[in-house]
Amino acid sequence: METRQGNYFEEFEVFSRKTQSSPIQYHFSLLAPNEDIAIMMAQENFMRREAVDDIWVVKRRNIRKMTAEEKKTLQRIDNKDYRTTKGYGYLKKKWRKYEQGMLDEKEIMSWAGGVKNEE
Amino acid sequence: MRNESLKDIAIKELLLQLADDDFIHSYRGAEWLGLAPHIEEDVASASISQDTMGHAAIYYKLLDELGEGDADKLAHDRPAKERRNAIILELVNGPGHYMKDPDYDWAFAVVRNYFYTQAKAIKVQSLHSCSYEPLAEVAQKVQMELYYHLMHWKTWFVQLLGSGHLEAVSRMKAAIGKTMPDFAGVFSLGQYGEEMVELGLIEGEAVLQKKWIEAITPIFESVGLAATIQIGMARGDGRNGQHTEDLEKALKTLSEVYASDKAASW
Amino acid sequence: MNVLLNDMAGEEKLNQFIARIEAGEKIEADDWMPEEYRGTLIKLISMHGISEIMGALPEKEWVPKAPTLNRKLGIMAKVQDEMGHGQLLLRVAEDLLKPYSKKRDDLMQDLFKGDLKFHNVFHMEAKSWGDAGLIGWLVDGAAIISQTNMLGASYGPYARALQRICAEEVFHAQHGEAIIMALAEGTEEQRKLVQDSINYWWESLLLFFGPPSKKEVGTSKQDITIKYKIRTSTNEELRQAFFSKYVKRILSLGFSIPDETLRFDKESETWIYQQPDWGKLKVFARNEGPRSQDRLSLRRNSYEKNKWVREALAPKII
User: Fold this and answer.
1) Residue B92 and residue B103: Cα distance in Å, rounded?
2) Contact between chains at B254 and C64 (C-beta distance less than 8 A)
3) What is the pLDDT of residue C209?
4) Domain-located, residue B265
5) CA-to-CA dists, residue A38 to A10, A31, B211, C78, C312, angstroms
6) Among C148, C252, C273, C302, which is disulfide-ready with B35 (CB 3.0 to 4.6 Å)?
7) What CATH number corresponds to the domain at position B157?
8) CA neighbor of B191 nearest in space, from B205, B180, B208
9) Overall average pLDDT of the C268-288 stretch
């Protein structure tokens, strides 16, 4: 079997997350011979002045990006109110007629951690 | 009363050892700026040198609070014979000058850094239960940054030795051979060592050394190195003011501007 | 479908490219771009990147000598940032070089051969602690003026790298100002350090922005970088901005500027100044400045000496 020397400078993309609940964020790319060295260099290269909770490094060749042509597939007509609460806003007025408040996003999200008993 | 003053002396001695070790180690690290094997590593290791200088500054500040004089003066204005750092930490990175034809050896940098960081982690761990409270508190903080330092240097150590690359392995082995004979100096507690232990400031030299050997043995084994670890103080004990010409030269450089006007504000 | 981009004729691609730039869109590494654009970016960004790497060296000389613990820490952090900026910029340049199969090693070799130039200021000597401060204050000040001018660059990866860089440059400028301020408020000798530094660096600072037009040195990239919306201002506009921001500050600390003709002309609202010796730019480009060869040799030395590390860790492909 033939062994040949690969490239010391492999490209890695670096991502991090600020806190446990924040989304992963992209930073930049760096060169490293392998992922252990890449992760060891990531914070000091791109996050030395900010707090981070987690870091990911990914070999660039393992990232499938979109081509310019494929990016065209991302376009949509702005007519999809039926998918969002915006399309159902009229319910607020309806419920008012029945002397009830609307169970809107704000109300529903406030149920996290339990709902207070009420009559 | 006598006990009290002996305690004061022991505390100051220990702080000077800790401060001087980190100060000169960081100085040698800083000489590598711009010269590391690749740019990303240059940036990463520069943080470690900064952290380490930061630790020295914290220890000097504790000494300042004990009336030993201002931290900058302690760092810049003490002759070699008053320095307490271990000799292995003052040795040059290699022949040449950091500005002209430096023949620096990355293998020696990796070995010295890995050995020292592991030793420092063990000492700092021991300082968690230091009877001198301010030092115990500082040890907690310093430890936070050592996780990264240790991961960094251990990764280099293991990867270079485990690379199977002939030159890398032989350079690394040579660097280990160069570091071991003086490395016991890092564990030396100097002439007040017994008092430090009796006063509950830190564990004894033998205990610290044993823990260090226990920590590095599995790493040695993982890269197929015989784990007969023998360290000594071939060039003397830096804790007692014994030093090499390397330190003299370093002190001259690092205090050049400071010494040009000691009274000035810089 | 006959509207696929790769089926478009060259001219159509170019028109669409120009239209995107005109509309303020960002061009990304994988997007189609005209050769002239790619070539201009490669020249600009690889020189910018390697200048950061070479620019770390003059200040590095003062890292061990910095006079207090705090100054030692500050200048270490600054040199680290310069290397970090080099890292960001070289990554951007390396991605642009993909079609030519050129990598970081090739950029380093280009530097050693003298094909890849580095900025004029980094060929100069950093003789004193005053110079270390002045580099932070005025050289970085000049760099901030030229770099912020490109923050809106049409090339997305460059604009993003600059965003990171400029944020850190603010720290650099203040680090430099802090050193200078301490010296300015210090002893006569300390003040002299600053005055000597201003005298030594002034011409380099003017040269830094490049010639006002083609006629001074024969070539100039400024028109092309403006055409492609990589930057917005001309060399001369940037130099004028530098005068506007820094002349007053230098004078306010009681220092003088080595140019008796320097004055603001109210009529034309421009600074009148003694032209530097533009021929020196060519001297630096040939790596014949006071410290060109020493710094190149330091860089080459570290690259060669550590070759075994890169070889040892290169993955083995079976």
Assistant:
1) 10
2) yes
3) 96
4) no
5) 9, 7, 30, 22, 16
6) C302
7) 1.20.1260.10
8) B205
9) 96
Report the gap between the CA of C118 and the closest CA in chain B (Å): 15
> 3-state class of A28 per DSSP?
strand
pLDDT at C308: 96
Tokens representing B79 are: 């002759």
Residue whose entry in the numeric block shows the structure tokens 């090499």: B244
* Distance between CA atoms of residues C284 and C239, nearest Å: 19
Subunits with 3+ Cβ pairs within 8 Å of C are A, B
Closest of B36, B77, B1 to residue B263, by C-alpha: B77
B43 inside 8 A of chain A by CB: yes
Nearest residue on chain A to C157, alpha-carbon basis: A28
ipTM value for the complex: 0.95
Nearest to C90 by CA among C165, C142, C33: C165
What is the reported pLDDT for C215?
A: 73
Pairing status of strand C316-317 against strand A4-5: antiparallel
Distances (CA, A) of C47 to A87, B158, C108, C160: 54, 36, 11, 17
- DSSP SS3 for B213: helix
- For residue A4, the tally of other CB atoms under 10 A from its CB is 8
The DSSP output letter for B202 is S
Asked whether the predicted pLDDT for residue C189 surpasses 90, the reply is yes
Q: How confident is the model at residue C1 (pLDDT cuts 50, 70, 90)?
A: very low
Determine which of B38, B40, B154 to mutate to test the interface with A (most A C-beta atoms within 10 Å): B40
- Based on the structure, what is the number of domains in chain B? 1
Structural element, H or E, at residue C308: helix C307-313
Q: Cite the beta strand spans of chain C per DSSP E.
A: 263-265, 270-272, 316-317
Do A18 and A5 meet the contact criterion of CB atoms below 8 Å apart?
no
Q: What percent of chain C has pLDDT over 90?
A: 91
Please tell me the distance from the alpha carbon of residue C275 to that of residue C253, in angstroms, as a whole number: 24
Cβ-proximal residues to C295 (8 Å cutoff; 6+ apart), any chain: C54, C57, C58, C122, C123
pLDDT (tens digit, 9 = 90+) per residue, C78-133? 999 999 999 999 999 999 999 999 999 999 999 999 999 999 999 999 999 999 99
pLDDT tens sequence across A5-46: 567 789 999 999 999 999 999 999 999 999 999 999 999 999
Task: Residue B43: list chain A partners with CB under 8 A.
Answer: 41, 44-45
Given 3-state DSSP classes, what are the helix, strand and coil percentages for chain C, each rounded to the nearest 5? 65, 5, 30
Structural domains of chain C sorted by starting position, each given as residue range(s) with its CATH number in brackets:
25-301 (1.20.1260.10)
Q: Both tokens of residue B186?
A: 């890092």
Q: Looking at residue A6, what DSSP letter applies?
A: -
Place of tokens 């506007």: C244
The residues, ordered by sequence, that sit 6+ positions from C238 with a Cβ below 8 Å of its Cβ are C145, C146, C149, C209
Which residue range forms the structural domain that includes residue B8? 2-260
- Please report whether residue B266 resides in a domain: no
- Residue B185 contacts by C-beta under 8 Å, 6 or more apart in sequence? B86, B87, B88, B233, B235, B236, B237, B238, B239
Which tokens belong to C229? Answer: 């919306």
